[in-house]
Specification:
The chain has about 120 residues and is mainly β. Helix content is about 5%, strand content about 45%.
């Protein structure tokens, strides 16, 4: 039997329902140890980092971001959803003229101490 990849397991738990006014999407908050809205200022650059104990699931809320995930770098569209496996280097950069936001779910028992910084322009470890 083929094992289902972690990203597919999460995507299967996302529920979407159509309504007369549009739709809503419900994310698997019961699996999340944290849910954040990250705001990146124009020119802001988060550290290149990875996590040992958690996967992350990002939903892009605004235009004006650049994402690095492993070896790939791109400018995501608002509404794009991205799975970040534990151990995968990633970062966000603010490119636009205004702050841009990402909704981040932590999947796995983790805390702020689960950040392994590989590069950081602000001098943090």
């Amino acid at each position: 039997m083929t094992e289902i990849p972690e990203d597919e397991k999460v995507r299967r738990l996302i529920y979407e329902e159509q309504r007369p006014w549009g739709k809503f999407r419900s994310y698997p908050h019961n699996l999340a140890s944290s849910l954040k809205i990250i705001t990146v200022n124009p020119g802001g650059l988060l550290s290149l980092q990875y996590h040992r104990r958690r996967n992350e699931y990002w939903v892009i809320l605004d235009a004006g971001l650049e994402i690095t995930l492993g070896e790939k770098t791109w400018q995501p569209r608002p509404g794009e959803e991205i799975f970040i496996p534990a151990g995968t280097p990633h970062r966000l950069k603010g490119l636009g003229p205004a702050p841009a936001r990402v909704m981040e779910l932590w999947l796995g028992n983790s805390g702020e101490d689960d950040i392994v910084r590989l590069e950081d322009i602000y001098g943090r470890d």
